[in-house]
Amino acid sequence: MQHPSKLPNIGTTIFTTVGNLARKHNAIDLSQGFPNFEADNRLLDLVSKAMHDGHNQYAPMPGYYGLRDVISQKIETLHGHSYHPESEITVTVGATQAIFTAITAFVHPNDEVIVLKPAYDCYEPAIALNGGVPVYLELKAPSFAVDWTAFKNLISPKTKMVIINTPHNPSGRIFSRGDMLQLQEVLRRTNILLLSDEVYEHIVFDGQQHESASRFKDLASRSFICASFGKTFHVTGWKMGYCAAPKHLMDEFRKVHQFNVFSVDHPTQRAMAEYLNTKEHYTHLNRFYQEKRDFFTKGVDGSRFICKPSQGTYFQLLDYSNITDEADTDFAKRLITDYKLASIPISSFNLNNRDDKVLRFCFAKKEETLERALDILQGI
């Protein structure tokens, strides 16, 4: 039987390719975005307690109310915007499901969705599956700044949605208050929706502030805020996040959510609700990850790599143009096979696989892992 693919241009992801090669060659893996250290034992104990307390059946479709309530309090405390926990917050299977659900709920065939490239690889397939058309704005290395005039020129009568990601994966750039105000002004007199991917919301460096879309009145009125507990609390395998949006948008979001997922792991939600009541569990992360970023970037000093310290996320880009003219995919492969160190070539995220001679390294690792990686980088 012959069936045409709905995603004919989607092959094996770069993460799978690099991960398999790294395992084959026993390489130090700084490619994929997950820690190699354990989560807080307090959080693990809370999950175990919730299981033993009998919270092992379905949670409510939008999520355990206690968790939605504490999420609402967190957003209001940090960003000054109030989301009603009953009708405007939904617990999701990670941010990826939240992103997919928001796109599916609103993007119709031939609707245009503006995507800023380089971009995380889950946006465009979700758009394509729903018959939408990605429209690209290219951010250029090394600053990855947004050209807001060029952005405005992409708006058309067919534009249904804009997707942003701050702090930004893979560049590590954060959107400034000025960026968000310009975005708000461009969208103000339109019906365009904003999908704001904020999974690294608690990982921002050098005293800077995460400018959530929820901080800006007009943006908040048209936005889906997507976040991740997995990224925040070093438990990416738990696949738990949330989405916040005004009620009239969340009503449509939940129509898809209830048939796609229905509800999320119940004992973990109970544990998260209690764990989030201690604000230091997430407010200390900026300092925790900045120490790792600084350790990594200082360790690169004196090497032949060019390093502009990341503003946020737990990724660091390294420019290798002083070392070789190889394509980033070839150099990344050679780093694994010859040097036993895995990274991600940024061309995989770029429009038309543009090659900026830049690799992405994840520094959410134990110090001894980073030390071994830095020894390799210094020797190249």
TrEMBL record:
The keyword Transferase applies. Its cofactor is pyridoxal 5'-phosphate. Residues 27-376 form the Aminotransferase class I/classII large domain. Gene3D superfamilies: Aspartate Aminotransferase, domain 1, Type I PLP-dependent aspartate aminotransferase-like (Major domain). Pfam families: Aminotran_1_2. One of its GO terms (molecular function) is transaminase activity. InterPro entries: Aminotransferase_I/II_large (IPR004839), Kynurenine-oxoglutarate_AT (IPR051326), PyrdxlP-dep_Trfase (IPR015424), PyrdxlP-dep_Trfase_major (IPR015421), PyrdxlP-dep_Trfase_small (IPR015422). It comes from the Bacteria. Keywords: Aminotransferase, Pyridoxal phosphate, Transferase. PANTHER family: FI04487P. NCBIfam families: PRK09082.1, PRK12414.1. This is Methionine aminotransferase.
